[in-house]
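Please predict the structure of the following assembly.
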Amino acid sequence: MERWLEQNRAQALAGWYDFLRFPSVGTDPAHLADCQDCATWLRDWLAALGFEVEFLGAPDVPPVVYATWRSPDPAAKTAMIYGHYDVQPADPLELWDTDPWEPTLRGDRVYARGAQDDKGQVWWTLQGMRACLESGAPIPNLVLVLEGQEECGSASLIKIVAADPARFKADVLMVADTSLAPDGRPAITAGLRGVSSISFRLHGPDHDLHSGVHGGLAPNPVAELASIVASLHREDGSIAVEGFADGMREATTEEIALVMEEPFDEATYRRETGVPPVGGTRGIAPQIRGRLLPTIEVNGFHGGYAGEGGKTIIPAWAEVKLSMRTVPGQTPSRCVAALRRHMESRVKPGLRLDMIFLEPGAEALRVPLDSPAIATARQVLGEMDPRGAVVRYEGASIHVIGALAAAAGAEPLLVGFGLERDRIHAPNESFSLQQAESCLAYTAAFLKAMGGAAR
Amino acid sequence: MERWLEQNRAQALAGWYDFLRFPSVGTDPAHLADCQDCATWLRDWLAALGFEVEFLGAPDVPPVVYATWRSPDPAAKTAMIYGHYDVQPADPLELWDTDPWEPTLRGDRVYARGAQDDKGQVWWTLQGMRACLESGAPIPNLVLVLEGQEECGSASLIKIVAADPARFKADVLMVADTSLAPDGRPAITAGLRGVSSISFRLHGPDHDLHSGVHGGLAPNPVAELASIVASLHREDGSIAVEGFADGMREATTEEIALVMEEPFDEATYRRETGVPPVGGTRGIAPQIRGRLLPTIEVNGFHGGYAGEGGKTIIPAWAEVKLSMRTVPGQTPSRCVAALRRHMESRVKPGLRLDMIFLEPGAEALRVPLDSPAIATARQVLGEMDPRGAVVRYEGASIHVIGALAAAAGAEPLLVGFGLERDRIHAPNESFSLQQAESCLAYTAAFLKAMGGAAR
């Protein structure tokens, strides 16, 4: 593997850079052609490697790249590899040190939007797979599912999976879109939170009003919306939305033990984010708050004058974007409904609250820890790092994994190589060459182990 | 006067349009040259009329146009006319039916930014004055003070007045920047609220954080700022800021009687603004809430993602712009300090609140109702409208009036011709030809009465 990498490093890096240059922002219709170009580029690359490649989905959304490769061994098992080539918007652009669409190597790290999430992890997974194919080692049949809408809810892929689950039959579902342990140990992710998003606009006066003439008379939609948003949480930081926790199952002793096993260092957190970990419910350990409890976060709030200095108005409207992370037992659609009821019941007469965006999203995920795939991954990762792999719950979400694994009858195996310092979703996202090589090495070793195991 | 108007209407209208075409946004440094051009245009127009004109103030701010005309009668009294040629920003541009910088007549109304506030009122005041000059009728000496920073606090003029009060000696200070009574009756404004503005930015994480990874761990500055803003008012809408009301004098029986005399029609209010009058403290009459009580309003609130759909982040910061209206007895600087203490004391550890804008502003104004100028105005307005003039308190503010009147030893006389439907500070601002002609007729009649009275 090391020799393969030595011989192919320059070419693999160049391909990665090309992959990163596509501004494949899946959520933004203005970037549809970029997403299509990026998918076409992936298709050509995979076809050259011997894959049969198809685009799935409607023509007006980023295509799902669906590619298959069959082992000559009729007894071979099947590994499905899931990843996404869409990325978050790059804004605010002014905070990037270099162009987000022109990958730049500084030290050991490549900076670009998507350098890690998820183009970096996808690319180095594909390189590991390619190394296996070129070595001729026995590996399982491969089904690749590379989508372009993960960052906005995977709507297209969820439909495709529901309509034709047979396409997705596999023995394992490999996903490289998660993180290493904070101390750099390899990690198997055994759970993710669910995520749902909803946005509202609170309408007040027909037009901005003079705040001198109307102050004390007209209701102020910005102040009112701020009050409603403030009412979502109690003084102690816990969620105050009635019905939001319905059906929620308490974290198990095993889950709590697993997250508490992982050290949490406040000073490191502070250094990496600029804030102490004081979010969520007071009095609960940060590991539990960040992985095993639900959240409601404000992703954006906008209303009224935003320019220099002041402008004495009562604004006509205000808008809030909210997302929630849910845990096992919570039903996203019921959480959304509870949040909506909470918001609507607090609107002062004379104002009007409109829902302007809704992505009910997917449920939280739990992976059984006793599967053969996890045993193989543990063994492979143990050989890469003498400290062995840790099992983790992550607070983030990957919409489609639950549906994909269920429809396919495959066990999900989430092994990723991210680190907090990669700053995914933020300006100056990056991925180190070391992380990239670990991703490649793990993929190759796992596929070889699985190919050998199949004989 | 009617004959003068008939002969000069087309020319006066053309001049008004030229005046309105200058995008003289005094608060925005990008429009400094436009303000200077507008002031130069005024200077030339006044010089042609026989005025001595000077620009006062520093070269990097919109100039104060200071113009004088001396009556041949050595016994003549002096009238000072104050107005402002700066206007509010025109944004949001997309809500204007026609270009805000290209005056457009529809029906009886001229639409443009500044059509009323205050270019319209200034222009038609100047036309009334010009008609007097051209008629040769005896009128008082004239001192014109036309500034370009009223909408952002009159900082330059306040300094000039303090440095050289002698320039501003007069027997009356005429101000046309207020409104008619809602039923269209002429109105003498006997009081204004004070106004002060302050903006804050609440800093959270160094960069936007992934809301899945960090939800429940990192504090959310948008949610925190929403809570702080919500804490400014009590459940009943009253102001909850400790120390804000220090020194505030309760409204007098006379003030209450005057504001309650004016009918307030909820249906009309709703039709004109799109909202019922449910702002301010519940259980208090709208006339009192809008004129005689202080307010704290949110003029703008911005943080996090504002684009289409969703973005799952914990934003790095949030910003709020607040303005307050104050009443007699309140000291603006103390109100600002109280508000600041309230905000700062509620910041969660790990977050940082920066003040990013401050305009401590001016105190509330009360005009004595028994002055000779008010008696003359009452008589003149009574001749224009058989219903007679009403005396009003307005909720709005004109920063410099108190300082200008005090330094000059002049009695302030606030007679304006605005109506709610003019939509000042909002898109589609307008002023009707009928209001314009009333403004002209009143100015001419008052100056003639004052000129006659001087003999």
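Residues 433-454 of chain B form the longest helix (22 residues). Chain B touches chain A through 99 residues (CB under 8 Å).
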